[in-house]
Structure formats: structure tokens, C-alpha cells
Design a protein that fits this description.
Elements lengths: L1 E5 L13 H17 L3 E7 L28 E4 L11 H7 L4 E7 L1 H14 L3 E5 L3 E2 L8 H12 L6 E3 L1 H9 L18 E2 L3 E4 L6 H9 L2 H7 L7 H14 L6 E7 L5 E11 L4 E8 L8 H17 L3 E6 L4 H9 L3 E12 L2 E11 H5 L4
Parallel strand pairs: 1-2, 1-4, 2-3, 4-5, 4-6, 5-7, 12-13
Antiparallel strand pairs: 8-9, 9-10, 10-11, 11-12, 13-15, 14-15
Helix pairs in contact: 1-5, 6-8
């Protein structure tokens, strides 16, 4: 169970809202109860884009002072109505923690709350909408009160959510027991790693030109990586925005591979498959064609393996590869991983099937210096 506080931002949290004072009182009560009962409080902000006046760096974008996040409470930013849009990173965070129930509160009823409620339902979550904990303004078709009542009393109940009182929601929180699943790995995200020639760090929007030029637009590199190629700056910007959004979850580990000599992004590396219950993760990487054969992939992979064991707390690191990818197989060999086995005819490529080879290294082997 988590409490979502959506878009209660300074630019829209004012007396234009239906029952503004009651809304603030109710949502504050739920936040206090959640904190007292071990229910995670997660904040979401809506970003209308640079120059809109309602974006990162703008005062109106910040969360209302009356319900500001406490120390360590997570904030996710989104650019569309649903808080569960993949690029926001929130759904990844919820899945990693095996959350099943979402208590949805915030603004505005007919936009982001409605979109989030329906998206949560479609993604299999139990959705709780407490009475008086969402609000909106008048629109061109209905006044704010009518809009609020339409969604809370007619649209959501019995279809997408349980619409219950604040007191009933408090009772649920007080009876809340943490998930039986235990995630032991550290939610440290992709912190910066420095090697002799490389800087591994989170993606930034200014990486877009070198990402497009060096690897993302290369059909052969992307085909071997298992991803489509990106031919325009708009496509690359959208890709990087997705990476940045997901990085807000501490359980997302993806690095831009930066060549220190020039400052350009020459590839990427990630723990793209992370199992927090069983303490293992799988590495994927790609390096631009002009930079291959120089040991950069090996240098980055060794550094990420170190990070996985030393910082994340993994018990096993694995890499899978197609037999035809001889370059990656050489990287794996240099990094000291053991061959675990082969999934026969796993990939369908170019009209035929190809095997998938698995390699791994265990924490005990790593500690023995076998890398």
C-alpha cells in the first residue's frame, strides 16, 4: 500500500478548487496517518515543459508548502496526465516493491486523477479514492462541484476504484502490514562511476547530440543491442527523457558511457533486469561502432559489476548474449563470468532462430578475486 499525492503544486492549489480548505485538511490528515503507520507517501508533479511557467525551476511547479514532502519521501515527475506513465518511473518503483494497493489523492479530478485511477486499474492495482481528497476547478462544461461528484460518485465507484471515506481509509492504513516480500538490494540508482578512461553517469538531455551521432542511429549497433534505431533528435530526446524519468526510482540502474577525453556519450550500460527478491541483475551494454575494439565495453562492464556487488548488494550478476555476437562474448570472457547454459532457439532473427547464452558471476566468486 502507498499513498499517492498527485500534482498538489503551488500554481494550481488555491481557492479556485472545489472545497479547497476541506481538500487540504483531508489530504494532510491522510499524509500524517500514512507516516505514522508505515505507509509510503509518494509525491507526483506535473511538468508542462520548459517555458510554460509550470516546469522544473518554476515556483508554481513546486509542491504546496502545506503538504510538502518529508525527508526521504520520493517525488516523481510526469509530462502526461497519468502518474503511471512508463516514462515517469513510478510504476517501476511500485513493481519493485510489490505494491498492490494505491490510495490516490490530489489534483485535478477530471484530468490527472482520473487518468491515474484508470491506468492503475488497468495495471492491476487495487485503487482507493478517499472522499474529499481530490479536487478540481470549473471547466467549460461543468462547475467544479459537479465535476467532482460525477467522477467520485458516478464514474469510479464499482468500475475503477473503491471510493470510501477518509476515516475508512485511515482504518485501512492502521491495519496495514508491510509486504511479505523483502527487497534487500540498495535503491542507490545509477550513481557516477569513474574509470581510467570513462565516466559512467545518469543520462542528461545535453547528451542527445552525441547519443544520436555515436550509436542510437546506427542500425547495426542497435540491432545487436536488440533495440530499434533512432534517426531524429526528437526520437533521441524522447528516449533520454524516458531514461531520466525512470531514474527517479532508486531501483533503476542505467548509465551513459562518457569518454572523458572528449565528454561525448559513446554508448550505454545498464542493469536492465533487476530482481530485488533474489538479489540478482542482468547487464546489457552497447558501444558505438567507431569506439568498438578499444576495450571500452570491458572497462565499463567491470566497473558496473563492481558497483553491483559493492553498492547495490547483488548476489549474482549475469549477462546473456547471442552466439553470433562475438564481440560481446569476448567482453564477457575478459570480465571473468562463467557460462551457465544455453536457451536453445530463443531469438527469432532474420528469418531464423538463434540461441541465447547465459553467463554469470556470484558474489562469492567476486570476493575471491575471480573477476
Amino acid at each position: 500500500m502507498v499513498l499517492l499525492v498527485i500534482d498538489v503544486q503551488k500554481g494550481i492549489t488555491d481557492d479556485r478548487l472545489y472545497d479547497h480548505n476541506g481538500f487540504i485538511f483531508n489530504i494532510t490528515k491522510l499524509i500524517d496517518e500514512a507516516r505514522q503507520n508505515g505507509v509510503e507517501v509518494i509525491y507526483v508533479r506535473h511538468d508542462d515543459g520548459e517555458g510554460s511557467g509550470f516546469s522544473l525551476g518554476d515556483e508554481d511547479f513546486e509542491i504546496c508548502d502545506k503538504i510538502a514532502p518529508g525527508e526521504g519521501e520520493k517525488i516523481f515527475d510526469k509530462k502526461v496526465n497519468s502518474a503511471l506513465a512508463p516514462d515517469a518511473g513510478l510504476i517501476d518503483h511500485l513493481r519493485k516493491k510489490h505494491i498492490e494497493t494505491l490510495i490516490v489523492t490530489g489534483l485535478q479530478t477530471d484530468y490527472c486523477i482520473d487518468a491515474t485511477v484508470k491506468s492503475a486499474f488497468e495495471n492491476g492495482f487495487e485503487v482507493i479514492v478517499p472522499e474529499g481528497c481530490n479536487s478540481t476547478r470549473d471547466n467549460e462544461y461543468m462547475d467544479a462541484e459537479t465535476t467532482y461528484k460525477f467522477f467520485n460518485e458516478s464514474m469510479w465507484p464499482g468500475r475503477y476504484a473503491k471510493c470510501i471515506s477518509v476515516d475508512e481509509t485511515v482504518s485501512l492504513m492502521r491495519g496495514y502490514a508491510p509486504s511479505r516480500f523483502s527487497c534487500r538490494i540498495a535503491p542507490c540508482g545509477a550513481q557516477t562511476i569513474e574509470t581510467d578512461r570513462l565516466l559512467l553517469r545518469a543520462f542528461r538531455r545535453e547528451d542527445a547530440p552525441s547519443v544520436l551521432c555515436n550509436w542510437a542511429s546506427d542500425d547495426e549497433v542497435q540491432w545487436m543491442y536488440g533495440e530499434p534505431s533512432y534517426k531524429t533528435m526528437d526520437e533521441v530526446n524522447a528516449l533520454i527523457d524516458k531514461y531520466i524519468g525512470r531514474s527517479q526510482s532508486g531501483y533503476y540502474y542505467r548509465w551513459a558511457v562518457i569518454l572523458k577525453e572528449t565528454g561525448e556519450c559513446i554508448g550505454q550500460i545498464a542493469y536492465f533486469l533487476v530482481d530485488g527478491n533474489n538479489d540478482f541483475a542482468e547487464i546489457e551494454y552497447c558501444i558505438g561502432a567507431a569506439f568498438q575494439g578499444r576495450g571500452y565495453a570491458t572497462e565499463a562492464t567491470k566497473a558496473v559489476i563492481d558497483y553491483g556487488f559493492d553498492r547495490i548488494g547483488l548476489n549474482k550478476v549475469q549477462i546473456c548474449v547471442r552466439p553470433s555476437n562475438t564481440g560481446s562474448r569476448k567482453v564477457i570472457e575478459k570480465c571473468g563470468l562463467n557460462e551457465d547454459g544455453i536457451l536453445r532457439e530463443f531469438f527469432f532473427r532474420d528469418g531464423g532462430y538463434e540461441d541465447r547464452m547465459y553467463f554469470s558471476i556470484l558474489r562469492s566468486e567476486y570476493q575471491d578475486g575471480r573477476v
